[in-house]
Amino acid sequence: MPTDAVLFWRGSRPFTQVDLDLIAQIVRDFPGLSRNELAGTVCELLPWLAPNGRPRLEACQALLVQLEHSQGLVLPPIEPRAPQRKSSGWGPPPPPPAVDGVLSSIRPVTVDLVEASSRDAWSAMMASYHPLGFRRAFGAHLRYFVHGQVAGERVTLGGLLFAAAAKALEVRDAFIGWDAQTRSRYRHHIVANSRYLILPTVRVPHLASHALALSLRRLAGDYERIYGYRPALVETFIEPPWRGTCYLASGFVVLGTTKGRGRQDRHEVYPVSVKQVLVHPLGRHWRQDLLRDDLPPGEEEGGWDA
Predict the structure, then answer these.
(1) Does the chain have fewer CB atoms within 10 Å around its N or its C terminus?
(2) pLDDT, tens only, 220-253
(3) Which of the following CATH numbers is that of domain 87-291: 3.30.505.10, 3.30.390.10, 3.40.50.360, 3.40.630.30?
């Protein structure tokens, strides 16, 4: 089997040469299919499914591209993508509430999954008020609203987004003990807190760390219910002048800094600012969960083991 192919795994085992021969045959036999349609066909015939039963389309498309480069697989041309929807398509967000007080005055504070009917409101809020704005989420992701009680009414205080982790991150991968092959198998067990917002009109000391802690308590269970697996680690990035105080108060650990390259910067031509890398575990055996997939049942809860 070609060396490149072992970086792609189906669960806990690599693709075999028989698998790769079947993929090549599918590409030859169906020249009229688009890349997305080819990926769907491959996922159906192998089969190659995520824990929740959905086809692994993104991973399969990545495998097809790698086989195109390493084995001369002839793929159809890339289809042009539809223009990405701008934040203006979501409309203006609701006016933010003016809240100024202590944490006890707005209890109970809850962190609630965003329903489909509220996604545009969440996106508009994040695009309008988060310093980085918002356009899209990568990979399997969950959105949350932060709610509180003000004058007897349930109001939105902010929101969070957990999405796909960085494809490769030197300080993170060294901390876990990953090589490229192991990272390919288990990267989906890390999620990134890529957006966190407390609305600028909300001034409540300790609210940010309290809501963050609430989200971490439910995150693994929500991922398991919706996507069929439990993430083991949360990562996030802090860019100056922000210091990440609420993350440190919630038990995140600073690992180091990024190299200043963007998520899609394969050719190192789009430098971005250097950020601090912070991580937080979602289980006592988080490292084992990122190195092997045979954890005994019932051993997911706890804190750091290192």
Answers:
(1) C
(2) 999 999 988 899 999 999 998 888 999 999 999 9
(3) 3.40.630.30
